[in-house]
Amino acid sequence: MVAGTFKESTDWQGAGWAFSVWAAHFSALWGASSAFPVDPAARWIALVATVLALAALALVWRRRRDIGGGFVLPLALGLSAVAILFGALPALVG
Amino acid sequence: MSPPISMVLPMTDAQTVFDAWWGWPPPVLDPAGPYAESVTVLAWALFAMGAVVTAIVAAALYVALFGPAKLKARIGGEKTVWIMGIAFPGVVLLGLLVWGLTLTASLTDPIRGDEQRIRVTGHMWWWDVEYLDAQGRVVLRDANEVHLPVGRPVVLELRSADVIHSFWVPNLSGKKDMIPGRTNLLKVQAEKAGYFGGVCAEYCGGPHALMGFVAVAHEDADYRRFIAGEPLGVPSLAEQQDVPGQLPALARRTGAVAPVSAQAGAVGGALDGEALFMANGCAACHRVAGTEANGLAGPDLTHLSRRLTLAAGVLPNNRGSLQGWIADSQAIKPGNRMPSYDLLSAQDVAAIAEWLDTPR
Amino acid sequence: MSETGFDHALYDRFPTQGPRPEGELEELERIWCKPTGWQLLTAVNNNYIGIYYVGTAFLFFLLAGVLSLGMRVQLAAPMQEFLPLETYNQFFTMHGTVMMFLFAVPMVEAIGVLLLPQMLAARDLPFPRLSAYAFWAYFVGGLLFFCSLFVGLAPDGGWFMYPPLTSIAYSPGINTDFWLLGIGFIEISAIAGAIEIIVGVLRTRAPGMTLSRMPIFAWAMLVFAVMIVVAFPSVILGTLLLELERAFNWPFFDPTRGGDPLLWQHLFWFFGHPEVYIIFLPAAGLMSMMVATIARTELVGYRLNVLAIIATGFISFGVWAHHMFSTGMPRVSTGYFSAASMAVSLPAGIQVFCWIATLASGRIRWSVPALFVVGGLLVFVMGGLTGVMVGMVPFDWQAHDTYFIVAHLHYVLIGGMVLPMFGAFYYWFGMTSARPLSERLGGWVFWLIFSGIHITFLPMHLTGLMGMPRRVYTYLPDRGLDLLNLVSTVGAFVIAAGVLLFVVDLFRNFRFSAEEEAGNVYGGGTLEWLPTGLYSTRSIPLVRSREPLWDDPGLARRVEEGRYFLPGSATGLRETLITSPINAEPQYLQIMPGPSPWPLAAAVGTALHFLALTVQAYGFSLVCGLVAVACVLRWLWETDRPLKHEEADVGAGIVLPVAITGPSSHGWWALNTLMVVMGMIAFMAVFAYLYLYGIHPEVWIAPPPLWQSGLVAGLAAAALGLAWASRAVLARSPKGVFPGQGPWLLAALGSGALAASAWLNWTGWQDAGLDAAASGQGATVFALAAFQGVCAAIAVIMAHYLGYRSGRGLLTGPANVTLDIVVRFIGYVALQGLLTALVVRFFPGG
């Protein structure tokens, strides 16, 4: 692969942001379930955190979609969203 | 191997104790109650998933390495990764996750309060078992066996007296840790009478490998007799003079399994056994209800005559192994907290064993 | 459009034309001369340190493997007496500990040290002496630690060291202290290596090597190193707390006094599970590199693969408590960890199918590395699938702590790390040896190891389901376990035969050489296959693609002719090009330190310091500690020296500054990384504090009075201000002019304020009636205060070092690297003190 320019075209930092949102979401959920092990409050916090996290992913997309790099940012946001939704399931199903 | 000991409980037919514990079929896949059964179903589904995915990967790999060019070209691109590496596992994992979560919820259904309560406390390296009434009073104290009523839920209150242990009877449910400073609750239920092997699953130092127990599920009437402390129809130890065939290695090592009849010696009779028990300091650690022996550091020996095993699931309980255990417990279970009483004469050991054998 | 203001049009000047000056290459060879005799001990060049490092790690692999054979003999039949139980317990503890801490992590780090500079076409890693220190600390510390086995003092609490089994009540001997101090110390060495790798990957790439053109191994090592920086502080803190509990009776893990045994499990597994990926990712990077060469095509899904590596780096931090499902944690919590355990499988799937697709898209050339790559992939997939199984909470309740898990983890780690490692040995052997390894014997090695794995570990799935727990020194007969265990034992010896055959081949064919090496046996396309000497490549190429050697066949020749950057030495010293983190634009020339005995001396001093602590020779320990500090300062002394050149021509008339200061300098980046490490330690300590409050709030007492907290915070804030002022005063001084003693005095005053703040914080809690030995609150508060005190003491030492340099007139305006580092450290410690003191004094409010 011989690319012409010497400028990075992929938004790798955006991927970092996407997964940072997952990390924050995970911390919020685990923190809540540890602080309120039997209280339904933990579930409500989890649901609110999930909505906020998805909104944050959308924000990352709005802010960075023009930087370029093809599927990397959308896929990073997608993987992060899947992990966030997986993470929200225990508050709904469990 | 030598013939099994014939310790027939009322509710079993020819089933033998040691045979029933482990072995085939694997107890994880041989559930005896609802808290294990649903996990067995899950386990088979997971094995199937594992086999199918392994086959898919192996097939893809085979095509990639040796396949015809046309097939190779079809999987030799990023599309393969999107479909096989992202979409397919994503769907499978989502399904598994939902199953796992709902199953976890159903296995940890709330305690209703009318279950049989049993408090099990892990010690290095044995189990203190207390049967509680609804108010939490101890109605029976026993060790190294957990007796359950068939068809009724039981809540085990799991605690530890020293380090972390883990209570596991694979036929009945998954394991739960016994953690100092905490009480963990584990709900189990046996749907059929029988013997189920249990072990300590968390490494607890020293002879952790030899920290087992037996779970025994009884029909209701038998269970009431057990709680009342009545004999269970187990042949008394005195009648079981045969050397246990199960443990030739242990037998060789202890060298004391050929039982000595107490009556044959100068000292005989149950009364002398009690005196020897007290005089040699056994009472400092062991309790025998109705006597002065009230130690709490070791297993309660009140109902030793009813026990199936000695040394926490290691030796079959009979006169010979009991004498061997008293004389040389360190050779059988190295590092355990009971010293070998190898200075006692064979007659003294026999007398103590005979006294302990007395049904109470 | 440029990241640094560097004009990309300047790249058009390469390759340069015309003859190179006489003697340029000879000068390069003289500067990077080969060490001989005793100099081999003072060498700091990555070719040497890398080989020492790989060799030592492999030695530990063999040693831990021998332990496993002992264990398998003991378990070959029920109630065997081959190993007494005390020995067996030490064996399995040491097997796990040595494999994880002394083999796996050091091995991947070592491969990084050996390969990265060449892959990135840097002359060396950015801190060669730090690599040397990290290696020697690991070498001396690791061997001493292993020797505890020969005197029966090896740890026996399992590699996970759960208290209270490892507390003083149940493990009174010094065996446990060997583990805590030995491993804590080796972790420090791993962190030093990680800092080196982060800065190396981000700042020493060849010009033009943008992030997307990095060899995928460099990506993996970058994420690996960041994960180490985040994860290892947790276990370092854990070992410190447990050692404090053992030595001073501070009850972190004692539930009778407001501690909790599960706190250890959280701290340990927060490190322990990312650790698995820390081991796997670099090996996966090696796989990706080898797959491309084997299939003779570029990696399919490069960006997918990089994304998978990044995703794994994050999500693997959300799975630690799946080791704790059976501890009785809240059901919803188990769900979160189960969900993350499922999610983390996705990136692994991406990587596996990237490899398969690559193999399908190219034309396979069969070779020993190819065998190991394909075998590793299969074994890893099987281990990953059992991993999905045990990620399910209900199934884990059954499988946890049984031989099913033993099977699972060995499949994952052998398939994910050991087999790729063997493949990499064959693949990159030509880089360091004059003769390649034998392809014929290699086939035997592979098939023996590969079949041995399945013979050993496949039956263990079944023994686990049959109820055989882990960590048992024996099992009872007549439970159906005899035959399966015997098969496993046979398999272990089959693996051992394969490894032995490899060692034989190693002795036959390993001839160390950095110049006359066997070379690119398998036809790789990345920069490490350029012709090299100890100075790495003659000139540093301009990188235009991911596999420059495939895309530009003339590149090697032109590099060798010196037609690119730095064709000789611009300053007459060891040097490398520092480039920008994203686009790799040339920024400045770094002068590199050469061989030195001080890293070795400092490492021996540090190792003896910890060893003496273990055997409770406190006086000797103190002396060794001081010697180590003195050696470190001595080695640093030479690294910030006045320069003859301020600018240098790095080739084609491009002039770059030499050794800059400030936020673009590589030292600044390293310090920031170190601050992340310290911040993580403080963060985990605050977590411990809050966690214990959540479990046992009843033992909490009221904090000291408000005015005192204000004073503690005020002193810390003053330190922050003084540190800032110190730098500002120096900045007013004109270039090269000595500003007098003002700057260092301000820094010293700042460090004094830090010490006063820490002291006041400590005594204030004492006056408030808090006793470290009395409660979980006391233990955690004083642990935080002690950590702050140690940091303040280091700041004081650094300020004095700065003063000494100032006294010699070495601090000149307007900026100085040493001063930058010292005042930045003081500023960080001030912030850390401020935050930690305020958290424990105001939350949860007493």
TrEMBL record, chain A:
Q: This protein's superkingdom?
A: Bacteria
Print the keywords alphabetically: Membrane, Transmembrane, Transmembrane helix
Q: Where are the transmembrane segments?
A: 12-32, 44-61, 73-93
What is the designated name of this protein?
Uncharacterized protein
Record organism: Aurantiacibacter luteus
Automatic annotation (TrEMBL), chain C:
Q: Pfam families from the entry?
A: COX1 (PF00115)
Would the keyword Protein biosynthesis be found if you checked this record's keyword annotation?
no
Where does it live in the cell? Answer: Cell membrane
Basic and acidic residues bias locations: 1-11
Q: Which PROSITE patterns does the annotation name?
A: COX1, COX1_CUB
The record's keywords, sorted A to Z, are: Cell membrane, Copper, Electron transport, Heme, Iron, Membrane, Metal-binding, Respiratory chain, Transmembrane, Transmembrane helix, Transport
Q: Which organism is it from?
A: Aurantiacibacter luteus
Task: Name one cellular component (GO) term.
Answer: plasma membrane
Q: Which family does it belong to?
A: Belongs to the heme-copper respiratory oxidase family.
What protein does this entry describe? Cytochrome B561
Concerning Gene3D superfamilies, the annotation shows: Cytochrome c oxidase-like, subunit I domain (1.20.210.10)
Disordered, as annotated region: 1-21
Matching entries from InterPro entries are given as: Cyt_c_oxase-like_su1_dom, Cyt_c_oxase-like_su1_sf, Cyt_C_Oxase_1, Cyt_c_Oxase_su1_BS, Cyt_c_oxidase_su3-like_sf
Where is this protein primarily located?
Answer: membrane
GO MF entries: cytochrome-c oxidase activity; heme binding; metal ion binding
Coiled-coil segments? none
Listed GO biological process terms: aerobic respiration; electron transport coupled proton transport; respiratory electron transport chain
This protein's membrane topology, according to the annotation, is:
Multi-pass membrane protein
Which positions, given as ranges, span the membrane? 50-71, 91-115, 135-154, 178-204, 216-242, 276-295, 302-323, 335-358, 370-393, 405-429, 441-463, 483-504, 618-637, 669-691, 711-730, 742-762, 782-804, 825-843
SUPFAM superfamilies registered for this protein in UniProt: Cytochrome c oxidase subunit I-like, Cytochrome c oxidase subunit III-like
Residue ranges of domain Cytochrome oxidase subunit I profile in the record:
32-556
